[in-house]
Write a structure and sequence with these properties.
alpha+beta; 5-stranded antiparallel sheet
Length: 313
């Protein structure tokens, strides 16, 4: 089984990050399967006597650091006016945010473009003609805030909103322990795989030590922003309406909720109890064992001969 560990450690990486839901999720709704892991399925040769043993593990990893991204836009009649207004809004916010312990900020330039409007050109003998003319400038920047205490985010929002910065695009969060988690998943899966193989050997009355084997394995990491779902909570009116009535339905509020991958399909789970969005790392290993058909036929023939000898059939 040493070859299994040597093969799987090639898939390890040092750091991974994920996203808590921000405003980005109001438009981007993606459907993900529960626990499918993208690994190559073992090819089973029907002419051979092969058995597949599979082990799946799940780890829930809590974040250690966060990065919140806020978007800010400013428009004005001149480039100087746009730059001055936006710099004041951002600088007033950054000065207060940097007073928090272990907080770092970064300003990301997004775009700086002219803004146009249409002017109508009147003519007596033809239709109106509309011409695009420059009307000013639009400047967009993103504010990146790195922090380690998730409770600080409420303070950042309060500070930014005072400077008319409201758009929280997303909150990324990071963990430096992913490599250790993946190693732990591999070790637990290896132990479970060996146990399952022993059970199969016991059931079949065989020894797979020298049997040809093939291993397929893989990881899948699920980010919280991928696992938010939307729903509408309301109770419709029970009023009986005729087909002649005009009905104006009220707008229904759409909300989001975090739905993690459930642990019901896994052989083992690391940190099973979660109460907040987490990075979810899944690992699956499949071992294909080719049993010795010639040996089985020889054993079957010997058993049959032994039964005949004692007149059992």
């Amino acid at each position: 089984m040493k070859s299994i560990v040597a093969f799987t450690t090639l898939l390890l990486s040092q750091t991974v990050h994920s996203q808590i839901s921000g405003n980005i999720n109001y438009r981007n709704q993606t459907s993900y399967s529960e626990s499918n892991i993208n690994i190559a399925a073992p090819v089973i040769d029907s002419s051979l006597n092969e058995n597949v043993i599979s082990v799946k593990g799940l780890a829930n990893v809590k974040a250690e650091k966060y990065v919140a991204v806020f978007s800010v836009t400013q428009v004005g009649e001149s480039a100087e006016e746009v730059n001055s207004l936006l710099e004041n809004r951002i600088n007033n916010s950054i000065v207060q945010i940097n007073t928090f312990k272990s907080v770092e900020t970064y300003i990301d330039m997004v775009s700086f473009v002219p803004v146009y409007q249409y002017n109508a050109e009147k003519k007596t003998s033809s239709k109106k003609t509309y011409n695009e003319v420059p009307a000013g400038f639009e400047l967009k920047k993103n504010i990146h805030i790195k922090f380690s205490d998730p409770a600080q985010l409420n303070h950042f929002i309060a500070i930014l909103s005072k400077n008319e910065i409201y758009d929280l695009v997303r909150v990324d969060y990071f963990s430096d322990s992913i490599e250790d988690i993946r190693k732990e998943l591999i070790n637990k899966a290896k132990a479970s795989l060996e146990e399952k193989m022993k059970n199969m050997e016991s059931c079949l009355g065989e020894d797979f030590t020298n049997a040809p084997k093939n291993v397929n394995d893989g990881f899948r990491t699920v980010l919280p922003t991928e696992m938010y779902k939307s729903y509408e909570a309301y109770n419709s009116s029970s009023l009986a309406l005729t087909r002649f009535a005009n009905v104006n339905p009220a707008a229904k509020s759409v909300t989001l909720y975090y739905q993690p991958v459930l642990d019901k399909e896994f052989d083992f789970v690391i940190n099973p109890v979660i109460h907040e969005p987490v990075i979810q790392v899944m690992y699956e290993i499949k071992l294909t064992v080719r049993r010795d058909m010639k040996k089985e036929k020889t054993q079957a023939a010997a058993t049959k001969k032994e039964k005949k000898r004692f007149g059992l059939f």
